[in-house]
Specification:
heterodimer; A: 278 residues; 9-stranded mixed beta sheet; 11 strands; B: two-stranded antiparallel ribbon
Chain lengths: 278, 305
């Protein structure tokens, strides 16, 4: 089982749902933080990190002695990551998408691949929960390859919960593609609704069953509920606006620990996900 | 011309509401929504769209089954796993590198350019606005951000307006990098939570990495005064000026519901007073008052190229 917690709009409560769902399941669960630009799950789970590795993506390095400046590499590169002048071949590492076209096309075998650091992958554990997250290097633009690296830690014997990044573009797709179920966390405001609609479109495109969690459910207006009814989107859970919940979150604590009545509610959320995913 | 870009690292800290409030406080400005992935500023501005233009991204490979000999070279070369066993390309996986197109011995692979979204020039009650909508699941968000910012600058120049207020995206990746390059000043909107501090620290490092001046404000500061102090201490350590604190106020949600800025809902609130002080602090900052740094101009033209 693999569940993605997504939202469209940022700050609606993805991390809250992901960490509390994982903590309520206690055992047999792996939490995968795929919001690699701003990973936050570890702040709530405080896992003991046992494994750490640098994740890189291959980029070309051109051997000046072998290069004949034929420009074939620059011509094949759709990302303008290579410029060949009369007597020099320049690589712009940050523009490279690691397609390997230049290496394949070079008639002189003058190109080898070196790594550009994308970020760090860390694995750990807290109580019975396995934990993995990616931390994008500050200054690095491309997050999807790092997200895929986090996803590669998928454990088929466990319930895998993914905390996805906000938005609807390629990083989100990388965090949702091929999962069994998507939980969309939203808030009942015009911004929440607008971005929920975008997230629903993305989920439809990927053809994944989904449902919504309404956070700060007693603020705003009825737009989100009306839309959910219209779209036949199951409302899996509602979390009210409560200063205590906001306070627990602000300190990096878990709702299911500080307010134990929530544990059963999150377990119930999981049961509903299971039913809807089946 | 000056450009203020509002960013946050963490999502949902109040970027768009504050951008809207600044629109109401300023006199002559172009508004720009650089959160092309999940744009929301138009929900406060009700723009009257004057011009819609397609945003054309790169190509996506398409195999012609008539010409394909099934040699398998394309799937051998494709590093993105986009070519299925039956030689059909999964467009969601295609990175648009065109390597298969160039290598196909049967020349069976076409590479049509894709419409990846749309961008708009609009009129609002607060003046002109440039905004966009990236298609679902699309790449190239950074390119579209660069495009809307460049168009906002062009529009400002044409209309003789010397201020652009840009609502930025969350995170620190591609669209954020495209949003901050060459900006006059960044306002980082944080919130007093462990996530807020963590994400503010990373986005501040990003600003420093690209050498763009930044200031910090803390929204909903009274939800956790201890965390507010911790953010301010962190900002001081990192050499970022703390410009102000905004109290938690339901007026922000109310303004969204009414499609208005907070100043149009109720001016006489502590939140409005705090945002007004923030705005005055920004406009008094040297980055907004001194003539543009020639280095930044060069950087901007390089990014736009």
């Amino acid at each position: 089982m693999i569940i993605s917690i997504a939202s469209g709009k940022g700050g609606t409560g993805k991390t809250t749902v992901a960490v509390n769902l994982a903590a309520s399941l206690e055992n047999n669960v792996q939490l995968m933080d795929c919001d690699v630009e701003e990973p936050n799950c570890h702040l709530f789970l405080n896992p003991v990190i046992s494994e750490k590795k640098t994740v890189t993506t291959p980029i070309p390095e051109i051997d000046r002695d072998k290069c004949t400046f034929c420009r074939k590499c620059a011509l094949i590169c759709r990302f303008n990551a290579i410029a060949v002048l009369k007597n020099a071949a320049l690589v712009f590492p940050e523009l490279c998408h690691s397609c390997g076209g230049c290496t394949a096309v070079c008639p002189e075998n003058a190109i080898t691949e070196i790594g550009r650091e994308l970020g760090t992958l860390e694995k750990g554990r807290k109580n019975g929960i396995d934990f993995v997250h990616g931390i994008l290097r500050v200054g690095e633009a491309m997050s999807p390859p790092l997200i895929r690296e986090v996803r590669s830690c998928f454990d088929p014997d466990r319930i895998n919960i993914i905390d996805a990044p906000p938005g609807t573009s390629c990083p989100v797709i990388a965090a949702m593609k091929g999962v069994d179920f998507v939980v969309m966390v939203t808030e009942p405001t015009p911004f929440g609704l607008h971005d929920l609609k975008l997230a629903v479109e993305a989920v439809k495109l990927l053809n994944i069953p989904s449902g919504i969690v309404i956070n700060r459910a007693d603020m705003g207006d009825d737009g989100v509920r009306e839309y959910a009814g219209h779209e036949n989107l199951p409302i899996l859970m509602e979390i009210p606006f409560d200063r205590k919940i906001a306070e627990v979150y602000s300190k990096g604590r878990l709702m299911v620990e500080e307010m134990p009545e929530w544990k059963e509610k999150f377990l119930d959320l999981y049961r509903r996900i299971e039913q809807s995913a089946a | 011309m000056k450009e203020l870009v509002i960013i946050s690292g963490k999502g949902g800290t109040g970027k768009t509401s504050i951008t809207g409030a600044f629109a109401a406080l300023s006199e002559n400005r172009v508004l720009c929504d650089a959160d092309v992935d999940a744009a929301d500023l138009h929900l406060l501005m009700n723009p009257d769209i004057k011009r819609t233009t397609d945003f054309i991204g790169g190509g996506i490979a398409v195999i012609d089954p008539e010409k394909c000999t099934g040699c398998g070279l394309c799937s051998e070369l494709c590093r993105f796993g986009a070519i299925r066993a039956n030689f059909v390309i999964n467009s969601l996986d295609c990175e648009g590198c065109g390597v298969c197109v160039d290598f196909c011995p049967a020349k069976a692979i076409d590479f049509p350019v894709q419409k990846c979204g749309e961008w708009f020039i609009s009129e609002t009650r607060f003046g002109p606005m440039v905004h966009a909508r990236l298609g679902i699941a699309e790449e190239n968000s950074g390119k579209l951000v660069t495009l809307v910012r460049r168009e906002a600058a062009k529009l400002a120049e044409k209309k003789n307006i010397d201020l652009i207020i840009t609502d930025g995206p969350p995170g620190i990746g591609c669209p954020v990098i495209a949003s901050i390059g060459g900006a006059s000043l960044l306002l980082i909107v944080s919130e007093p939570t462990v996530s807020g501090i963590h994400d503010m620290e990373r986005v501040t490092r990003l600003a420093r990495h690209f050498k763009v001046p930044a200031l910090l404000c803390i929204n909903k500061y009274d939800l956790n005064p201890d965390q507010t102090s911790a953010i301010e201490a962190m900002a001081q350590k990192m050499g970022v000026g703390v410009l102000g604190r905004i109290p938690f106020d339901p007026i922000f949600v109310e303004s969204m519901v009414q499609s208005k800025t907070i100043f149009e809902v109720n001016r006489d609130t502590d939140a409005c007073a705090a945002v007004k002080r923030l705005w005055e602090g920004i406009m008094d900052h040297p980055a907004m008052t001194t003539p543009a740094n020639p280095f930044q101009q060069i950087q901007k033209s390089r990014i736009s190229a």
